Amino acid sequence: MPRRRPADTPARPRDLTRGAIGPTLFAFALPILGGNVMQSLNGSVNAVWIGRFLGEGALAAIANANNILFLLLGAVFGVGMAATILVAQAIGREDLPGAKRVIGTSATFFLTASVLVALVGLPLSRHVLLWMGTPADALPHADAYLKLIFLAVPFLYAFAFLSAILRGAGDARTPFLFLLLVVALDIVLVPMLMLGVGPLPAMGMAGAALASLVANALGLTALLAWLRHRKHRLWIHRTERHLYRPDWTIVRALLAKGLPMGLQMVMLSAAMIAMISMVNAHGVDTTAGYGAALQLWTYVQMPAMAIGAACSTMAAQNVGAGHWDRVSRIAATGVGFNVLMTGGLIALLLLLDRAALSLFLGDASVALGTARHLNRIAIWSFLFFGVTFVLFGVVRSTGAVMPPLVILAVTLWGVRVPFATLLQPTLGVDAIWWSFPASALLAMLLSIGYYRWGGWRRARMLDGAREPVAMPAEVPAQPPAPLASLDPHDTQDGRRRAL
């Protein structure tokens, strides 16, 4: 009979290795989903303020600057995911010292990277915008905005890092609550600093960026103060400051596993740029219809992204604990949730497509018919995308990061872009819309194949000696053992210490 554990408290990460999988996974994914929705709504609200009060040039400026910000965040996304998986595996093994070692090294890495990005980006912001071909009337706005965004990068990176670490430890609620604080501050501060309210000067686009800087700095400070006040067990105390010295084995794991995951974000971004370039060639009405559909798709993919992230953390804790039967059930439950939530949302948006798309285009827009047509063809691809994202999250929990990258490269650049390019002479613009479900279906089939027959169960996050682990009958391949000590000669009671 499993031994009882103390009830979870805000200062104690949640144990994802026990209990009913369905309710636990749903409760863990819900705050992640809420955070994604809040960030998107925050961006939409800020775009409304900027577009209405500063004009189209300013709106174009923020679009160009945000492309750079997306790349900056995407560059460290993978490293953050790698740190999350390492912490989750350590928590699953009940290896608190190992988790703190990962946190200390990762914190030093993120702080160093953020300061370097800020120092390099600040003097180069205008040159980067010129290289991107930013319109001349948008350039001054974009440069003023981007310079302050580079100053905000250390706060953005630190907040994202702490949120990832807490989720890896099983706590998705705390990052969500503090993200609500950041979003609320940003929404309030943007019009005040942009337009000048009371004694505040009107700063225009620079005010919008300064609002983001202040909101993230205050949110980060509040989160750190809360963790210290609650004596969170992952908090690194004064006597443990040596943990901030980089452990190069962990650094190598962060880069070796994190960079391929970050590269996935870059490939997705590049593929979307390629697609919109093809759409632009068909005229402004087609582009407007595609843009309206993209607004809907942003929200359609959120359940899958939240469930996939939750599955990755939950699976990683169970990998660390050696509960391989639960890993398989987590994957099945995650896929089931995705079909229900994403499928239900797709059905709703197809039923109400005219009303939903007219929010962005207006009832009288000539682009509305185009938007409804392409949406009916392409929106189904997100059901396939959701299954892929969930399975990618599970296989990454062991450290298998290259196969998902290869599958994404093949389906995006070997199927989606060539399909849309080569079949336009035959299918016209519909070739672009059909390329979405075609590539997404293949990605789902390949991810299912790799999950079923691939070697992801033998992957590992850290190099080092490992012990054999008894594997359940239903697991078709040898699973990895708990990670051994970074020093293979360091033993205790005849067993290698975890991490």
Number of domains: 2
Mean pLDDT: 81
- The percentage of residues in β strands lies in under 5%
What is the topology, as strand order, of the major beta sheet? 1-2
Radius of gyration: 23 Å
Tell me the number of strands.
Answer: 2
What's the total helix number?
16
How far the N terminus sits from the C terminus, by CA atoms, comes to: 27 Å
User: Which runs of at least 5 residues are low in confidence (pLDDT < 50)?
Assistant: 1-11, 465-499
| Major sheet attributes | 2 strands, antiparallel
Quickly give the structural class: mainly alpha
Element order, helices and strands?
HHHHHHHHHHHHHHHHEE
Shape: globular
Helix content: over 70%
Membrane topology: Multi-pass membrane protein
InterPro entries: MATE_fam, MdtK-like, Membrane_Transporter-Flippase
Region (Disordered): 476-499
Protein name: MATE family efflux transporter
The gist of it:
The protein is mainly alpha-helical.
